[in-house]
Amino acid sequence: MKQRRLILMRFVGAFYMVFLAYTTLVAQQARTQEEIDKKASAFLDDRKEEWRYWNVPYEDGKVLYDLIIKNKYQSALEIGTSTGHSTIWMAWAMSKTGGKVISIEVDEGRHKTAVENIKKAGLADYVDAHLADAHVLVKELPGPFDFVFSDADKGWYTQYFKDVEPKLKVGGCYTAHNVSNTTGGADEFLKYIQKLPNYSTTVNAASSSGISISYKKAE
Ligand SMILES: C[S@@+](CC[C@H](N)C(=O)[O-])C[C@H]1O[C@@H](n2cnc3c(N)ncnc32)[C@H](O)[C@@H]1O
Questions:
Q1: What pLDDT is attached to residue 30?
Q2: Cα separations (Å) of 127 from 19, 27, 122?
Q3: Mean of the per-residue pLDDT values for the chain?
Q4: pLDDT tens digit sequence for 163-181
Q5: Which DSSP symbol is given to 53?
Q6: Which of 57-71, 103-117, 202-216 has the lowest mean pLDDT?
Q7: Cα 198-200-204 angle, rounded to 5 deg
Q8: What phi and psi, each to the nearest 5 degrees, are found at residue 72?
Q9: For ligand 1, is residue 185 a contact (CB within 6 Å)?
Q10: Is residue 110 in contact with ligand 1, taking CB distance under 6 Å?
Q11: Ligand 1 centroid to 205 CA: how many Å?
Q12: Mean pLDDT for the stretch of residues 192-211
């Protein structure tokens, strides 16, 4: 009887220790995410009016952030980093879904500034920033991706899509910036993707320059 009570007490003690360790871990993780949120949102709010290198407006960055969180995406590709505004929005979302963004920029100065900005926003762990020509690297990256943001040279938009498409998961989402522009090639891309039967495409109404949002429904 005494021995049984001893075993029971040991069992309760062990259970309590595991429970304590688990709740401490959960609290630590919550605190870490809280710190990430605080730093990223402060960085984005402070710099709101200071993006100069064809960066997306604040509201468009938020559209990307919301899409990633809503769909729990974890492997994003961005074509056209510039100095990192949209990358930071996507990376912040990835800090919540447990994913990562690969971003490509061909201009060395802008790539360097982007890396610094991403670090200042506290999001370096969620980004692989590549200094490269996306015409080449997009073909080479293995994927798979569940989210793509195309925001580099508009004349290549359709080709970027053709190169990434086989690596985009079903249920994934392909977005492109400036599709409301009637010159430069983004409009051609929009017409192309709107005709594809395995994609469902809308254009975000809140964005002044137009973000196309295309969900892949089937292979
Ligand atoms: C509109 S800006 C990107 C803005 C960025 N997405 C943001 O919101 O912060 C387009 C960027 O694409 C880059 N770009 C243009 N052609 C490229 C290429 N072939 N490979 C990689 N980057 C390219 C440009 O240097 C430029 O910085």
A1: 63
A2: 34, 25, 11
A3: 92
A4: 999 999 999 999 999 998 8
A5: S
A6: 202-216
A7: 155
A8: 55, 40
A9: no
A10: yes
A11: 23
A12: 91
**Least confident among 2-11, 105-114, 141-150:** 2-11
Domain ranges (residues) in the chain: 58-216
Which residues are CB-neighbours of 118 under 8 A, at least 6 positions away? 84, 87, 88, 91, 124, 127, 129
> Does ligand 1 lie within 6 Å of residue 186's CB atom?
no
**Second CATH level (architecture) for the domain 58-216:** 3-Layer(aba) Sandwich (3.40)
Q: What is the pTM of this model?
A: 0.89
Q: What is the pLDDT of residues 30-44, one digit of tens each?
A: 669 999 999 999 999
Collapsing DSSP states into helix, strand and coil, what is residue 150?
A: strand
Asked if 214 and 200 count as a contact pair (C-beta separation under 8 A), the reply is yes
Distance 84 CA to ligand 1 centre (A): 10
Closest by CA to 151, choosing from 124, 128, 181, is 181
Contact at 8 Å (CB) between 71 and 99? no
Tell which residue, 107, 101, 218, has the closest CA to residue 170: 218
Q: Is the CB of 163 under 6 A from ligand 1?
A: no
Pocket test for ligand 1, best of 63, 107, 208 (most atoms within 8 A of CB): 107
Least reliable range by pLDDT among 28-32, 71-75, 141-145: 28-32
